[in-house]
Structure formats: C-alpha cells, structure tokens
Specification:
It contains 21 helices and 14 strands. The protein is of the alpha/beta class and 541 residues long.
C-alpha cells in the first residue's frame, strides 16, 4: 500500500495514501476539534473549526476533507490556526439561542443544580433530589426558609406568571430528608491525614467544615459562642427558622465528623499563630470584624474587612483563608454558604499540592431575555398554571402533591447536553467571546416536541448536516433535509412531516451525533435498550 509522509506540528508521520490531514493528526495523538465531522460519514466541510495551516502555501485548510500530500508541513496548533478556530466558534455562538446553564443556577451563589433538583422532585426521586442539593448547600432546610432567593429573581418564568418556588421546593426536599429514618449524608473521601481549623460556626464556617470533610480532611470548628449557628441562631426570627430545624442540620454535620469547640474565642482562648502551627490550613469565618484582633497578625485589612482573593479567598498569610462577613458584611446566608464551599475547595487544593484556583470557570452561552412570542415554546415544558402556594402554614412548606405540581412549572431552561456539547467544549478551550460577533437579535427560541423521545431546538443548530447524513445512512424513509437559503437555512423533515416521521430509525444515532443540543433526548437520558426477542423458529425443543 502506498504511503504518504508529512509533518504535523514538527512530528513526522506516514499514512496510507488517501488519508485526510485529520486522520494523520489523530495518528500522532494530535487533537483537532471538529463539529461537522463524524467517522463513517462523508466530509461536509461546513463548520471550519478543524482548520490547519499549510506552512508551504500559508493557507488555512479544513483538515477533515483535505487529503494528506507528500511532504506537507502542517501547523495544527499555532497562533494563526487557533485564532481562526476561535473566530469560527464565536461566529457560531453569535446566533446560538440557548443557555448552557439555567438562569436560576447561574444566579445561585452556591451554584446549586436547581433544574436537576426540580426534575428529581417531579419524578418522585427525593433521595436523589436531596443528594443534588447537598452537593452544594450544607444547610438546605435552613436556606429553604430564609434565603432571599436570587435564583427566583432570575427564573425565566417570573415575568409570565411568577417564578418557580425554588426555595420552598428546596425546603420540601430537605424537610422530607430530615424526617426520614436515615437523613442523607455525603460519603467523604479517604482520609488525607490533613487537619483544617475553622474559626466561626455560622453559615460560612459550617459550610466550610461540611465541604472540607468530604475531601477527606479532619476539621475542628472553634467559636466564641456556647452553641453553633452564629447569626442563624441569634439573628433570625424563630417563626422563620425554628431552632429544631437549625439544630437538626448542625447535628448532621457534627455526625459527619466535625469536632466543635464552643466558648473558645480567637484572640482570647487561642491565637491565629497557634492555629497555623497546629493545623495544615485555617479558615476564618467569624462573621464579625475586629480590626484589633488582626492588626498584628500579618493579615491585610481593607475598608470592608479582611482582604482575601475574590475567588480563592486566600489571604496574605500562607494557608489562611477568609470569607463570609469577615470580608464584607452581608445578610445573605446563601452568600456565606457559598464562601464556605469555596474556602473548603481552596484549602483542599492547597493541601493536595495543587494550584489554588478556586472554582472552575466554564464557558456559558447566555440566551438573555425571552421575547413574548417565544414563551409558548417554553410553556410546552412548564404548562399553563399559576404558582402553587402551600395549603397549610408557609413555614410547613409544600405537601408532596403540591411540590410535584410546582416542580412541573419549570421551563427546563438548562441545556440537555451540558457536558457532551462540543460547541461548549471548544468555546472553553479557545476562550471564545459569545458577544464578539453579535449583531441585532439572536435566533428565535423554539422547542419542537414532535417525537416520543427527541426534542429538536433549531436555535441551537449549527447547520453541520450530520443529522441529515446520519439519517440517510441509517436508511430513513423520509429523514431530514436542509431548507431555506443563507442565514435562513434550517433542518426540517421533507414534505412538512413531523420529526417522529423523519426519525423512525435514526433517532439514537442523530442525537448522539449532534455536536450541540439541537437534537437531544426529551427526558435527558437515552431510552433503555430493548431486550433481544427470541426467535421461536430457531428455538430448539
């Protein structure tokens, strides 16, 4: 067999004649992004995100369709190539009509997966709902009662007929869990042998301890008050937050292994210098600012409080982190809980020998305001129903039936493929700016629900043509096709038939092949595989 020799990013390789540059690169372990390419389908060369540069001609070439030539010298990762790919991705994003993350999730300081919690409530899977909540929120029964609900302010349904009652749903899940015989507690990682001191047992300190334990570290909490809880115990009306609820959630954290040292004040009973010698990391979450306490400690004081990095909460002292009201006063307990979560992560990164980076920052496509004429598409998921109010006292929350009815109002704004969407992945890798090429209005929001298993959202389609080619390859009687011209091109089913008719055989292959969430599973998970049927004719008697 004849072979072709070429060089890609300085690496020489030999490939069979007729191979594409993309295939040659893969043979070298060089990852070239693709959106319109799928092994087994003819090249379409529409997305141009796979471009490389021919160093001899100085031309950009689509690697998925260009045949490797003898003696080629290819640049697959230089600045010119990366800039061209970034331009391509930004152009695709400029008209993308969809959110990677739902507005409610983005607005939650603790970044809780609210849409997933709501789906689990609808499905009656409260055990999975509480696990979802407590992945990010240490005190959900408390927060369900007192949180000012920035998530509800961001809810896309709010202008229509009232936001989904996210906090009451969170309270319902948490209360049901506390009432169970075995309340949920996350399983901590293997013990690391590292020790963390948390100063302050308010919401920030409790959250820091809760998350630090899950990383496998031993945690001691020190607090000057006789009982833990901080402002949650002393600054909230008991009608809003019964002590029984607060104590129950604190006991869950205690039972996870946190050791509480109450009536032990920093500056009186212990010093920061001693804590730094005794522990591998110190988290300061005292809730109040005493400048005299820190003036000789080496920590820096600003106008609002101690100075710490906004994302990592690192202070000027190695291994010391500060958050909550200590770095700026706020009455939002959810903010304090979010700070505690981030401080635990940063301390864990330090103790693991990693770079202290805090939360991972990911690309997020943001849809923006939904126009009134687009609301009908979203109402397919949430239905025409007004906000549900608890029949009993509000502090008791929803009944099980009320919680399901309210959960069913959710528009399901979050992406159905947040992890597998290649457009998002490449936007992340290329540090793309969604707004760079934005001109005029974005594409319309549409949800076409004409298939038993599949949702089609044209506003997320990048016209890669993969679904058209896959349907043809799978032998669909009708399949899918392009219609329109220029910017108005879109994928439809021939003869104005439904998606159900167009995807009788190829639904699974098309959903899996779609590089975005334009084609996705209606219930977000692949349908179960059918068990093979036994052919009675071949059965031996």
């Amino acid at each position: 067999m004849k072979t072709i020799t070429l060089t890609i990013d300085g690496k020489k390789t030999a490939v069979p004649a007729g191979s594409t540059v993309l295939e040659a690169a893969r043979g070298l372990g060089i990852d070239i992004p693709t959106l319109c390419h799928l092994d087994g389908c003819e090249p379409f060369t529409s997305c141009m995100v796979c471009v490389v540069r021919d160093l001899k001609t100085d031309k950009l070439l689509p690697s998925c369709s260009v045949t490797a030539g003898q003696g080629m010298e290819i640049d697959a990762s230089g600045d010119t190539v990366m800039a061209a790919r970034r331009d391509t991705v930004e152009m695709l994003l400029s008209g993308h009509a969809g959110d990677c993350e739902a507005p409610c999730l983005r607005a939650c300081p603790a970044h809780m997966d609210i849409p997933l919690m709501i789906r689990r409530i609808k499905e009656g899977r409260l055990d999975e709902a509480i696990a979802t909540v407590k992945r990010d929120i240490a005190l959900p029964a408390v927060l369900g009662r007192i949180c000012p609900a920035p998530c509800e302010a961001a809810c896309r349904r709010r202008p229509q007929d009232g936001a989904v009652s996210i906090c009451l749903l969170k309270q319902h899940v948490a209360d049901a869990d506390l009432a169970s015989n075995t309340p949920y507690a996350p399983v901590p990682a293997k013990k690391t042998g590292k020790k963390i001191a948390v100063v302050g047992s308010g919401p920030a300190g409790l959250a820091a301890a809760y998350h630090a334990l899950q990383y496998g570290h031993a945690v001691d909490i020190y607090d000057r008050e006789r009982e833990p809880g901080g402002a949650l115990r002393t600054g909230v009306e008991r009608e809003r937050l019964p002590l029984a609820v607060l104590d129950a959630e604190i006991d869950l954290i205690r039972n996870m292994g946190v050791r509480f040292h109450q009536s032990t004040a920093l500056g009186t009973d212990l010093s920061l210098a001693v804590l730094r010698k005794k522990y591998d990391a110190v988290i300061l979450a005292t809730g109040t600012i005493d400048p005299l306490l820190y003036e000789k400690s080496g920590l820096e004081m600003g106008e609002r409080g101690l100075i710490s990095d906004r994302n990592t909460h690192e202070t000027a002292l190695q291994g010391v982190f500060a958050g909550g009201n200590l770095i700026g006063e706020s009455k939002r307990a959810i903010r304090a809980l979010a700070h505690g979560k981030r401080m635990a992560l940063s301390a864990h990164q330090l103790l693991s020998g990693e770079a202290i980076q805090g939360d991972e920052s990911r690309f997020n496509s943001i849809l923006g305001r939904v126009r009134s004429e687009e609301m009908a598409s979203l109402l397919q998921a949430g239905g025409e129903r007004r906000r549900v109010e608890p029949a009993g006292p509000r502090e008791k929350g929803f009944s099980a039936e009320e919680a399901v009815r309210e959960a069913e109002r959710c528009f399901e704004c979050d992406c159905r493929k947040p992890e597998s969407c290649r457009l998002r992945r490449y936007a992340d890798e290329l540090h793309a700016d969604q707004k760079r090429f934005s001109v005029g209005e974005r594409g319309p929001v549409e949800r076409i629900v004409q298939h038993d298993l599949v949702v089609y959202e044209p506003g997320k389609c990048i016209k890669c043509g993969l679904c058209v080619r896959i349907a043809k390859k799978e032998g669909e009687p009708l399949g899918l096709a392009f219609t329109g011209r220029g910017f108005n091109v879109r994928i439809t089913v021939p003869f104005s038939e439904t998606v159900q008719q167009g995807l009788q055989k190829a639904a699974k292959a098309c959903v899996e092949g779609c590089p975005t969430a334009a084609l996705a599973w209606k219930d977000r998970t692949p349908p179960p595989r059918k068990a093979p049927t036994k052919d009675t004719k071949d059965t031996k008697k």
